[in-house]
Amino acid sequence: MKIRITVLSLFTIIAALCSDYCFAQSPSLQNWIGTYEGTMQVYGRGKLQTELPVDLVIANIPGSNRLTWKMTYYEPFGILVKDYQMIPPSDQSNLFVLDEMDGTMLSCYAYDNTLTSCFTVEGFTICDTYIKSGNSILMELFGGKYKDESSSEIQSLDIQFLQRVNFKKMN
Prior knowledge:
mainly beta
């Protein structure tokens, strides 16, 4: 009887592990869908430089597995729209791809309620993080250049700016 219970317990543990690992699903951003509003704080060299209203729209694209990822910046000199598409993972990974619709594709990684990416353009490194919490999304984006520290194996990023928005869901 004891051997039977042990075998049954072992089978239950294996089944539970398989349900978590063998049949794992790609992360989803479906609970992120909505229209969000916030005020972007733009910092340069540690000081608040400006604030501006920003909207974020995340929506399903009909007939596609992609999402619209559209940010609208209401700047003093006019409106700037960044209308991108978020491509979900094609496998069980956490790798999303942000398609900027101009040939630029950026890797974005999902970790629970966080989406993050880093990329380098002409020696300038930019990192961003979106953290979903309830009806809010906190977005932080910062960037800079690596300091020339040729005598060390470790390089420091000289962070030159930070942009922060605490988006609130409107619908």
